[in-house]
What we know:
The complex is a heterodimer of chains A (983) and B (545). Chain A has 11 helices and 51 strands. Chain A is mainly beta and 983 residues long. Chain A has a domain at 16-99: Sandwich (Immunoglobulin-like), CATH 2.60.40. In chain B, 38% of the residues lie in helices and 9% in strands. The N and C termini of chain B lie far apart (80 Å). Chains A and B meet through strand 29, strand 33 and strand 34 of A and helix 2, helix 3, helix 4 and helix 18 of B.
Amino acid sequence: MNTKMKSIRIILIISLLSFGALTVFAERITGKVVDQQGIPVSLVQVTNNNGLSKSALTDKNGIYSIEGTAGDVLTFFIAGGLQKKVYVENNFCNVVINPTSDALEEKGFGIQTSKLASTAAVSEISSDKIMMFNSLNSTNSLFGTLAGLTAQTNAGGPTTGATLQIRGMTGALVYIDGVQRPLASLANDEIEKITVLKDASALALYGMRAANGVILVTTKRGTFEKMNIQANYKHGISLPIRPVQMANAGNYAVALNEALRNDGLAERYTANEIQKFRDGSDPYNYPNVNWQKEMLRNQGSTNELSLVFQGGSERMRYYSALHYNNDMGLINDLPTYSSIKSTQPSYNRLNARTNLDLKVTNSTFVKINVFASMDENNLTVKSPGSIFTDSYAIPAAAFPIKRTSDNWGGSLIYKNRNPYAGATFNGFSRYHSRNVSTDLTIAQDLGSLLKGLNAELKVAYDNDIEYFDQNSRQFSYETANGYIYGNQTPLAFSTSMNSLYFRTLLSGRLNYSTLINKDHSINANLLYVQETWKIKARNNQNAFQDFIGAVNYGYKDKIFVDFTGSYSGSSYLPTGNKYRLFPTLSAAWVISNEDFWTTKAVNSLKLRASAGILGNGQLSYEMDKQYYLAGPNYFFTSSNTSTATIKEGDLAAIGMQPVMSKKINIGIDATLFTNLSLTADWFYDRREGSQTSSESSYSTLLGITPAANFLGVNDFSGADISLNYSGKVGELKYNVGGIFALVKTKVIENNIKNVPFDYLSKIGKSRNQFFGLQADGFFNTWEEISNSPQQVFSEVRPGDIKYVNQNGDNVIDNNDMIAMGYSTQTPEINYGFNFNVEYKGFGVGAIFQGIERFSILLDTPNIYWPLQNNGNISDWYIGNNHWTATNTENPQYPRLTTLNNENNFRANSVWLADGAYLKLRALTAYYTLPNSLTKKVGMANVKLYLKGNDLFSLDHIKLRDPEAIGLGIPTVASYYMGVSFEL
Amino acid sequence: MKKYIFIGFLLLSYSCSLLEIDEHTGYDKEEVGKYIERVKASLNYLYTQLPDDFTSVGAAPRSCASDDGISAWETAAIRRMNNGAWTATNEIDSYWEGGYAAIRASNLFLESYDKTFLEKYKNEDILVLENLTKYYVNYPYEARFLRAFFHFELAKRYGNIPIVKKSYVADSVNTLKKSTFNDVVKFIVEECDSAAKHLPVSYIALSPAETGRATKGAALALKAKTLLFLASPLHNPANDLLRWKDAAKASLDVINLNAYGLIADGFVYNALASNEMIFEKRFANSNSFEANNFPMGMEGGSSGMCPTQNLVDAFGTSTGTAFDWNNPTMAAAPFNKRDARLAKAITLNGSVLGTDTIQIYEGGKNGLPLYAASPTGYYLRKYIAANVRLTPANSTTAVHVWSIFRFAEILLNYAEAMNEAFPTPTYTDATFTKSAKTYLDIVRSRAGLPKNSPGTQAAFRDMVRNERRVELCFEDHRFWDVRRWKIAPEVTKIYGTRIQLIDNKIVYTPNQLIETRYWDNKMYLYPIPFSETLKNPNLTQNSGW
């Protein structure tokens, strides 16, 4: 019995000893936290890696006190993203926080590193830059501030996003709070910072989906302070950028006659008829309809209202926000014929978010993020894009809006494309979408088991849906000679579900960090990640799975080395061959922390280098196997009975593999003269194994498309530089920054064989290099045409483009296309600069952005390519220097034609244009009322502001927005005024 | 501990299956071969690959590149076949890839055909087995006939072509060699003979009666047509009369089946059961052909292929004489007392389509200067289902059946070949018991014309060629006939008729030259796609391209 009691006591003692922390409960560590100027920093959360001590906050004087003992590691955390770990040598531990080097850098999946210890090439912007933009789609808020990320506007429309490229590649993944989610539905105001991961070191954790780069979005979180309520209201107007004036009916008729003469056809309008177009004496038979004026308004309008609750305590922090947006588009509120809705497109969105940080026990931390976005988009059935297109495309002389009979006007040429009738009569569509994103993170400090050991589990579950409801009908129209075509139908109703998204993420992480002999820090992570996406319908889901080991070694704040291995799998790869190993190695040397570094002018200098292999496993399903598929039905028997057929499907792809991207990056981070920070990187990226076709290798005698293979090799190289200078003169605070990014792409292998002429080969050229025919002026005479090589595209007449015969075969065809200009997808140079000046509450700031070495093809019908296919013509083309029978000297553009004229209207040097531009992307001016004044009414930081986006552009296009030369919904310059305050 | 191992095992097995996403809806090769319905479906696929000329180049039939038709659309791709823009890199009407894809599908079927399959069904109901057997044993012969047909379609265009009798792997196709046109014909004839031996004359007796499948008559008709091409001037420059005799004999074999006849009222197109039809391509009910070819000005119409005055003039009078615009009586009412086939093939001014009376005169509902109205003064009628309505949200459809071989063609093949093979069109002997004249007169009398075909070889040649043009117009014959007769340079001028309404009277002004087409003798054969000649050096380009 006695021995039994004894042994129980021994067990108890051993177990108590194993919870070694118990023995230090009596001891406390105290100290003071100050910034670099020696000013105390309050509200710093201090935790001890022993896993048991109750965390503490610093007080007004920066003083803290926490249980602990020498040998522990304390973590000092400031809400908003600063963290410093300090090895405790004795019971007094004073700490200096450096806002630059102690800032946290996100790597994803909960792994962060201090800026100092980072070996990665990243670009980062915070809320202040993002808030310079006012788009409903946050991809439009990244212009000109992130080196290495190129954003390009596509088209107009309230929710249309920009195309993003990281170091020359599209397809970057966006992670919002650690989960792959669409950036489009966030409100800019919810975003704390955006981090672009660029090199092998930064992307190491993303294995199979890292190759195209990753954008990390961190949303705002609570503070350790009492509740702060922020309210904001903003009203904006948007003006279309560079609308093009189309010809009036008289000018159109004259131009059409000119074109018909050029085509060797009879003129359509007599002088008398043209006069009637001009004087409006017979508006029903000789109409002059300015469709743009009839249908469009000069400006759209937007409203934004937001309410944010932010605050917390040491136990719980919260950020809770509501953002409401409304956007009314550029179409007039026309009288409708069903009295249901307005023809004005109206978009409404409500975003609600709550981000919570909870300290459940002294060692258990929980994060809960809940986000919901609901929107409603009301449109006419004839979509705004097509209303805009037709307002350009239907000539003023085509037909009146209505005939004298009150029937809709129309003609057999344009059929039922009366845009006014379409907008007002075809009915209405309503799109509803609901996006709900939730995630939960539980972090457990296991310091009680082993000092420095942590575990983290994260679960995310997102669920999006879009519904669609519409009522629609058709109208009949009357032609000039009084015949009625079409069918006026009653309203028909339909409802459908357009999209259905389901995303999940599950990750688990074990982290161990320690200091060996005080100078050697080790931070090791074991990480498991699985992500799934399910979208509507077949072969439209994917799953990725990663087993990751990552080690960061640091020596005395001087040398850091990261090694990461990711064993990563993609659902797209064939069974039994789904995983690849992606290793990366990187290092940084903080020279300025070396004892020998005495250069005063250079405050800090870090050299970085990284190398690694990363992949892109986003392929297509069913490539690795051949299936036999249903062919078109065929019919037998005397009653034409339908019978099924089966045909051979695509051959199984050979050597299916993810793209393997070998990345090298060398960079420096420096601070000069205290205020100037500089980051510069050089990179080289070779991508191997992109999907290629063998069609050019094998004769079509094979009878089926030869199997796809994965032989494509492309090189990307270039440099990213960003500079920032912030200073202060008296009460004048200012900040000036700039970015510059160069990316050169090169096709190394594309598996295109049997290229008949060397110059046709794409090897060695930029990816998406523009190819076109080289124009050699215009034909002036039939004689000149018959003495020149035959141009096979369409009948050639005087005034048509004459081409250079590149191969001497006396025929001009597609084999005479040569590389010219630059890429039509990736600008080689992307740059931006910005400033912000603040003086006694007044402030002004701007962001400029530009691209260079980029080509666009001016192929917009009706504008650059007028009249063809019964298209319209603009005042610009009528007045420009185009070929006419009397203007043969040195015309710039080809003759007018009513035909397809594939000779003129194709990729060639005439329509190739320099796509470079410099735009004022954002401009803001504001005044913050003195708090002393507003305190009396209980308000703080009352701010009145003006903002503008896309206000001007310097470019070579001039006629259109160089980023959107098409005819759909136009891009807009927008102006806002607003007020915000805090309670 | 065991519990944890179990949970760990569960997690591991879950995580392994996480990446397994398989949503395929097709069959793998074994799954196709396992069920007779799927084997049959693989054969049926070959029928979908049969060519037709409803929409050969874009929305336009190939007839728009013959002197029978012109596309109303300046922008139509087919117009580039007529203006010299046609090159080996700008093929316009390529069949190379489609033809060899159909041949591959045929070869795959033949290679996987399992003769022992029927063993599995021997315990079935005797009637089911009998019908199954009757169809199943024919399958390889249907496939071989179709494969021969695809070769014929290729050789018709490209002349010398590689014969492909098996499915190849990619590495071996770059060295395949062309066979001469003669050898291709030989191959087709052998295949047709073999198929004809096994295929039934008709499927009517079987249950279900799957009419529309290849028959003995179809195989013999293909043989006859192939031999006619071999005998024709394009491929028979020495005019070897034996070839004409072979062609005549092959046509006679079809006639002697005694399975076909001429429909009394004339050829009924789009009919599913017709005594005149030997082989056809079937379609689901549709209205796209009407949308393409209804006159502009009709609801949903877009003019499409407009017949030329050249063709209209080829239709004689109802008494069998030639039509003449210089005859004032005829010119005043040009469509009165004409060959009855004219109004069935061509929509004339005043014709009725469905409920619309077509006004092609200038200023009329369907006439110039209306946009894309017929430049010739005529619209298409043959193959158009006139009752189809194209009213938006209220449109109707109709069945369409493309005639590949019909009995009238066989009679005309025979008449042409006999006339060339022997000195007079009335020649008969022990083998050829009926003369060229006899069968030509049968075709003409069906159209209500008197039996007055001429007696000299040259005059008869003109008449049989004209008869062929008229009887078979818009059935994709003329384009090939002008090539095999080598008369293409003579038919480059395209005429239309100006129609005006003057003082409430319709006035016709004929012989309006619409275009003079580009011709180069290289165009007797199609160019082999330029890229093909690079990939396989044995595929030498046809001369002139």
